[in-house]
């Protein structure tokens, strides 16, 4: 087994992403050597990452792909396959996200490695690795046993509790030029759809989200006013998006975003697992629903039984501030 | 234009959570089996391609005969031209935790394919890996999470992929190409009664995994055996104490909630 080293693959040089991945490795595989494999085309981010990760990993390989200025999962997948081609049965971790899952799948297929996405609690059991993963969109939980005599690729969910990273490693930094052929369309454009400067679902401490219980597009739009007063980002459940009351970029849940605000207000959202899977990492959940039996109350820290529209009105009128 | 759409039979999640034998596959009930909800947008995308450029859509499904028969007929009733069942008799299971899945699916005997299409993920295992796995097996390009398709006159497609924080848009000329379609990309059509009746009488093609061309069953089995589900259960739900106010019998419910949130520094 070539698995005394664990490979941490990242498709961005964002230090928060890298630290989250390091934390998972440290918490679950403290005995193993850690090698970061990074694709980041922005030179400033590369320098920043070098400084931030100094002495916390055994090695960093920066992968440069000539002609690729942004992460395209198709090309990246192929480049990482080429990188790992000569590693015997690697154990590879990526942070879980839609984007990374596609990259991970291509790496796994290219290396004939087993793959499990969005996992938690990896544990070594003899020559096997056992991981937990949600099934049926969160209705069930599955344990998958992976034979470590073969390669393994995992995308991992972030830890809930912080972990102290080692600070005494001699980090060896390498730059590696990938020879993968970039097959991007000539007219390809890559856009970041969330701007870190603006308040959005990813960075807001408070999120106010609405569901079918708001009855109409006009009812949903009231949330924007509340969001302004509370300095909160606005989110939506799937029925709201399907009805055309809100843009799909606001959708939270299995088909949309997973968010982790300090407090999440669910106005008129019943709380199907497909929705609540997206708010599992919210620190506090406040549910407002006229149906006292709505499943969202089982998850909520606070709740109001009552008409969601009326509650929004009262909050707006009382100018509740954050 | 030849289009292959991969579809999977899954146990209706509402039934799976109440009957773990169905979820585990130790019991099979035709009534509980549905087309993976995420594959409906894949079928719709395939049908729109065919309608735009003329061509043929073949649906391919791997699994038990009972399951694939049911969902392939559902696909035919929507306008898919041909259904191919691939039965996994040669294996106890071929899960999506194994790269062998793409290897097998990529061997489905359809000639001169322009587009291979999958749904974004399967509703039972939520792996979201099939498209990339097929692309790797075929050694072709893959466009993931396609949320918008523009059909160009020269039969190229301008595709927009959308992820949590970014989007990628471009015109893809290369063929074959593998696409995975997001569940917000389109609105799937519904079948007519007449089409449903016709689909019941249609003939499906049937292959065993070992019938597929250039396939090393022993090797695939060895790879597949490296990943196995050892437990499937309801997750433990930590019971939460909910502080509850009732607006119906307490007109100050909202201000009391806000006061409580402020007291605990949540707001």
Automatic annotation (TrEMBL), chain A:
Keywords: FAD, Flavoprotein. Residues 200-280 form the Electron transfer flavoprotein alpha subunit C-terminal domain. One of its GO terms (biological process) is fatty acid beta-oxidation using acyl-CoA dehydrogenase. Its cofactor is FAD. Residues 18-158 form the Electron transfer flavoprotein alpha/beta-subunit N-terminal domain. FAD binds at residues 212, 237-238, 268-275, 289. InterPro entries: DHS-like_NAD/FAD-binding_dom, ETF_a/b_N, ETF_a/FixB, ETF_asu_C, Rossmann-like_a/b/a_fold. Signal peptide: none annotated. PANTHER family: ELECTRON TRANSFER FLAVOPROTEIN ALPHA (PTHR43153), ELECTRON TRANSFER FLAVOPROTEIN SUBUNIT ALPHA, MITOCHONDRIAL (PTHR43153:SF1). This is Electron transfer flavoprotein subunit alpha.
